[in-house]
Amino acid sequence: IREDMQDxxxxxxxxxxxxxxxxxTFTQGVEYTILAVALNLNKExxxxxxxxxxxxxxxxxxxxxxxxxxxxxxxxxxIAFLSMLGFDVLLLIPTGYQSVERFYxxxxxxxxxxxxxxxxxTVPDLYNLPTRFGEELLGKIFRRxx
Length: 146
What we know:
two-stranded parallel ribbon
């Protein structure tokens, strides 16, 4: 990764640690987990970060959890870190259950509730949607000021 982007990532990692937004940071050793997650991002995410350009299109992360399964501490850390890096983050939790926010000391995201809770949904394979449909869907969700 470019050196300027590495510096930016380390600054945001330090900011995540200093904010103590993750429960247990500097009291229960969670800071080591934060470092491990941030320093071991998968290759696809690193590629997104490498081509990240603040003046153009911002990367987006959509987390869909349709089950009663709880998100892990590592998931919570990764979502918080990507948000701090500048990614747009959308969490879709039709069950209304807690997800990544259960590991945060204070709200990190704005919560909106719409309609009734839905259980036992199956998520369509979003990777195999026609490109144009997927772009239109994400465009509607992430559009600004329209």
